[in-house]
Amino acid sequence: MSDTPLWKSLLVWAVVALGIVFAAPNLFYNRVEMHNDAVAAIDAAGGAATAEQEADRGLWPDWLPSRIVPLGLDLRGGAHLLAEVQVADVYAQRIDGMWPDVRDALRDVRDQVGNVRRMPAPDGVLRVAISNPAGLEVALEKVRALATPVTTLTGMGSSDIEVRAEGGEIVVQLSEAERVASDQRTVQQSLEIIRRRVDEVGTREPTIQRQGTDRILIQVPGIGSAAELKSLIGTTAKLTFHPVVRVTQDAGTQVGAREALMPEMDRTDLFYVVEKTPVVSGDELTNAQPSFDQNGKPAVEFQFDATGARKFGDYTANNIGKPFAIVLDGQVISAPVIQSHIPGGRGIITGSFSVEESTELAVLLRAGALPAEMTFLEERTIGPELGADSIRAGQNAALVATAFVALYMIASYGLFGVFAVLALAANIAMIFAILSVIGATLTLPGIAGIVLTMGMAVDANVLIYERIREELRAGRSPGAAIDEGFGKALSAIVDSQLTGLLTAVIMFFVGTGPVRGFAVTTGIGILTSMFTAVYVTRAIVNIYLGWRRPKTIIV
Amino acid sequence: MAFRLKLVPEKTNIDFFRWQWLTFGASVVAVVLSLLSVAVIGLNFGVDFKGGTTIRAESTQNNDIALYREALEGLGLGEVSITDVFDPSFRADQHVKMLRVAPQEGYEAVTPEVITQIETALQTVDPSVTFPSVESVGPKVSSELIMKALLAVFAGSAGIWIYVWLRFEWQFAVGCVAALIHDVVVTVGVFSIFQLKFDLTIVAALLTILGYSVNDTVVIFDRLRENLAKYKQMPLRDLMNLTTNETLSRTIMTATTTALALTALLIFGGDVIRGFVFAMLFGVIIGTYSTLYVAKNIVLMLGVDRGDKPKKERERGEHEFANIDA
Q: What is the pTM of this model?
């Protein structure tokens, strides 16, 4: 048609061409994937490539778009976990950690408050009794002085602890603002640690997301089972260094108030009584790697950060000749005797490790300990064979559906049906292009969404064609009928597709997992189908009209 | 004249209100029966909503369900359901069973030990058994998922209501939402009566049905609005019939293409999403029906404000002599 400006037609074709170019890598999925993996590996190695990596890289030209649609767990196989972080664990640790400070603060005003004693209290609450009730006010003031301001935007101006008197005793608890801030930190930290642990294994495209206030969603493609994933992220690997009080062979040994009895890791007949408070802990490690000791046995080398290094250095300087327990998750790995002052915060853990064990320990130490326990609310494992079956089934269904719809459209609308099918092809290319570019994950319900879109996308064509038929019946010329058809059908198309888009958006925000995958593809499909059915079909019809200049048309 | 496949003749003149008492009545009965079924029989909730574990067990041998049941006896698992799964795409030596284990008493989270126990027990009786998928959902999450699903369907309907209300008049919005509720309730009813597994994907299907059904209805309303302006004197009932006949070809075309695509998925898409696809296919069919026989009836009952005619007359608009005795 003459009334469509050239630039508009060109724009439409340019968009379609872009869609095809960006969708194309998905047709060569395995090749492009190997190429991408090779490129990532070469980058990670700082540009050095093995012959094999070069070969993989050569499978796909570097200058072509290489983004492909990531496949969801149900198509690729892998494990899905929904974990809840027990954020309240941290309150108890924090409050316990305050006791020495409270005790020291009150010791300074001993003449006014008398003796100070810690009373039994539930987790997360510190209860302190003083022997001189008259000093309660002074004591409260002293303890309150220990508070620090909360460091979040929302908790601005409030302090981290709540101190009050209850029945002549001092009760210390975390303040509401601090709990919120603490939860935030705990989940964030857990998230980071999980990410590091999962990354250490090096699987492709793991999803590690925070959900709600205290939950973490973990999806790792390619891992054998949810149990495997759990053991990977759930191992706490808390490394601590304790002064050894004495060594014993009696499992029933009584220990003092601030002491703990810990077994030697590989022996059942050796126990250590150690001071409960560690000198340094694994949180202060900056690095750990597998290595070998001077006898060539597997060991783990570690490096403390500045504060850790100072504490470690001071302690070793003051305690030469005394044993020192290296404790992993409550078991003593070894208890070497300190030979000399160890400055610089470097050390080595030796024990009866195998090479695998020392490697794993190094990984766990690097990732650090989880700040709180996690419980698992949901776990799903999908085997790769089932995923492959699903992909095959989805592909077959999509091909058959395309054939059905195409045949039916051509049988119903003849040449104009062919135009609609071409527009449909452009539509599918554009859906894949957008999915690839935004990196939206394709799931099995997502494939169903695409197939459904194929059925529903031609709706806009049907609306237009039916309208053109009516206009032709009313005796209009082909050009006028087509103009009217496209023009008048537009409001119905927009109205009907907007409602579909609305439900897709709701599904996306409210839904999880499979529902989301479906919402993404139907939502994108609706948007692209409006473009292809209206503009692309129009552009094709224009070419046809300009080329054949038909006197009459049959729709 | 070129050949054209036509499911609907070029010109139709169907009176969609002729059997009104039958069609609308049938819809009312279907909705009531569905609600009753959900209340009495209930829904066969999947692990998403009920909590518990499903295990897909594949074997090269065609084992009897009783064999599995025996193997699991004595593990103290409580309620275990085992069903056979068939699919045309399975290989000859691919025999699939789905096991459903109720949530374990007293556990908030999922217990991997139980899963390992089950897997070991089954592999003892048939070493060729593999477990391509294991899904466990704790009761805490499942109850939240129910709330979320309800919220989604509710928000979907409300959103559509508001949208149609803004675009059209309120009577149209009421008609539209009544048709939506009809479609969703009857679909849920079918899942209840046949005890098909009702999980998260079915909720996605319900939302899609919402979207599809409203799409269909809106197209007719859009044309109705156009015709209301065009034929100011025509009684509402005739006007609706005219509109529906004008758009009938499109309604049937779109329903057919969508149903064709979904049928391909139903047959070839594999057993994993069969329930989901079935819900959508059923929804498309019932959505088309409700577009033709439910939404408009409601609008007709409520009447439409046609502005230039006095109110009294409008209410009797379908009467032949409406213009005379006013």
A: 0.78
